[in-house]
Design a protein that fits this description.
single chain; alpha/beta; eight-stranded mixed beta sheet; 6 helices; 8 strands; 23% helix
Length: 267
């Protein structure tokens, strides 16, 4: 075979990038994936109207698609919750956050009107279970709730129409084909509830929630697991309570079924 003297053959070189040196590191098995853009929807329902702006700024900076609404009736709250739980696709998002601020009873939220029993907190949680909202199954569902508790708590046993589930809603049932899963429908919830006496609003109608102020501050600090961040949040609220009368104290509780570490940031 005759070789063309004008042709010089060189060995094929593989760049460092092609070799995989700059590929994203594998996600640790004990950590939730938080890499989608946006990270997920953050639904803010502020029935008092004092915390919306700060919360929107915080969660937008963290990489969430923020949907915020203020001064809502109970029917308004149900509408927006149903819209996100039953009529929104979360397949391409890694998480969901919901912030609720309202007057309420011991286990319900009233919105801006108090002519009924209120929307039970447990009913809100059921709307986002894995069997009710399949596209969030296995993904973290985070709730921060500021409830200004009134003395009307005895009304909570009054009748309240059930919120329509996905089968009764207007969406196409074929949009959510059933898929077998070993994940429990109650898994992956982070439920932070802060109660304060409604007299706080009567004395200072335009003041922000100390709990939500601390939350925004903590979320803007150094990245760390949400459970650890919440411990620091609880400590900050406790320190605040030491210097105020009983009627001005905040009471924070946490229930969660997280199976992995959760970082509310893509950074």
């Amino acid at each position: 075979m005759v070789r063309d003297p004008g042709i010089h053959r060189e060995a094929v070189k593989t760049s460092v990038q092609e070799s995989g040196a700059f590929l994203p590191r594998p996600l640790p098995e004990d950590q939730y994936r938080m890499q989608s853009k946006p990270l997920g929807i953050c639904l803010i329902l502020d029935c008092i109207g004092n915390d919306t702006d700060a919360l929107r700024e915080t969660f937008t900076a963290l990489g969430f698609e923020v949907r915020s609404f203020s001064l809502l009736t109970m029917e308004d709250m149900i509408h927006h919750l149903c819209q996100v739980a039953y009529r929104t696709r979360h397949q391409d998002k890694d998480s969901f956050v919901c912030v609720l601020v309202s007057r309420g009873g011991s286990q319900s939220l009233f919105g801006v009107d108090q002519t009924h029993a209120g929307l039970p907190l447990d009913q809100i949680r059921r709307m986002f279970r894995g069997d009710a909202c399949p596209s969030l199954l296995g993904k973290p569902k985070v709730f921060f709730i500021q409830n200004y508790e009134t003395s009307e708590g005895h009304l909570e046993d009054s009748s309240l129409p059930e919120v329509d589930g996905p089968a009764a809603s207007s969406m196409d049932a074929k949009a959510w084909p059933p898929e077998p899963s070993t994940v429990h429908p109650e898994a992956d919830f982070f439920w932070s509830l802060c109660k304060a006496d409604v007299s706080l609003l009567e004395r200072c109608p335009t003041s922000s929630s100390r709990y939500l102020q601390c939350l925004s501050q903590k979320l803007q600090q150094e990245r760390r697991p949400l459970v650890d961040l919440h411990l620091e949040l609880n400590s900050s609220v406790h320190d605040w309570n030491l210097g105020v009368p009983d009627k001005e104290k905040y009471h924070v509780s946490l229930q969660h079924t997280l199976r992995k570490k959760l970082f509310l940031s893509c950074k």
